[in-house]
Each structure stands twice: as C-alpha cells, then as structure tokens.
Amino acid sequence: MQKITHDPREPGRFLKVVLIVTAMGVFVIVILGALLVSFVGLFIGLVAFAKGNIMITLSFLMGAIVSLLLVGYAVYTVIRRGFEMRRLAIEGVETTGTVTRKLTFRGEGHGIRRYQIKYAYHDAFGREHSHVSLVSQELYDSLEVGDPVKVVYLPSRPSVSGLLSDVELARRALERKT
Predict the structure, then answer these.
(1) Could you say which of 55, 63, 76, 103 is the most buried, measured as most Cβ atoms within 10 Å of its Cβ?
(2) pLDDT in tens, 69-113
(3) Same domain (yes/no): 73, 111
(4) 64, 84 in Cβ contact below 8 A?
C-alpha cells in the first residue's frame, strides 16, 4: 500500500468531524421521528380497522408503510456508504480527479450551510466517473472548478470513490480498531 500524506488543503479536519457527528445526530433524530410517525399511523389504522372504517385504515397504513420504507432506505444508504468507505480504505487506488462543480445549500429549518463538490476522475481503463462529496467550508473555499483533487476509487467498482482526505479518516479509524 502506498504511503498517504496529509493534504494541506484541508485545515478544518476538527470542524469536519464535528459536522459529521452533528449530521449523524440529526439523522438519528429524523429516523426516530419517522419511526414514531409510522407507528402512530399504524396504531390509528388499527383502531380505525377495529371500528370498521376501511378507508381511514388504508390511508394510515399506507402512510406508515411509506414512512418505514423511507427510513429503511435512509438506513440502507448510510450503511452501504460505510461499507464502501471501509473497502476504499483497504482496497482503494489513488488517482487525481478534477473539480467539475461546486454547490452550496442550506439545510431546511436550521439554516446550516452545506458545501459540496462534484469531481470527475478516470479509472485504470480510461473511463470517466464522477461523484459528489460533502466537504468542509475551508476545502470548498480553497477549490475552484478545474482544480485537481486526490481521489480514491475501488478497482473492482470504479464508480465507487471518495476524496483521499475522507478515505484517510476511514483508514485511521480502521487502524485504531486493530
């Protein structure tokens, strides 16, 4: 495995960790809220069913099922990305990508600004792939469209990638576990 050096273009590592922990907390709260809504919907649907009101029963049961499906998809997405980051940390190949787009947006209700970059890179066969990644404000501000970025991708699935700085964090976490 090739020795990885610190990327000086991302000085806000502590801020990134804080944002990740905060995002995980918000994610858990949203999941719990959605589960609560689905169970309340399920309860109301069962009460309506007991009273013989089929239309209300169906509408509340459909709401509960949709909520549970959305929660399930969100959990699946987070778990899948975690496994991808683990594989990137172990099997990933480093390459240089190019920033193709910069995006900012505010989270609904709380006004926290989020920063994303979209980057493109080529795999060992010359095929182009792209990915969108959340980044710190410092990294976002230091990059312009057209700038190079260090990327790690999976040779077995070249469309799966991450910024080198994120993969380095996953590598450190895996080293601490062993």
Answers:
(1) 63
(2) 787 888 888 888 888 999 999 999 999 999 999 999 876 666 788
(3) no
(4) no
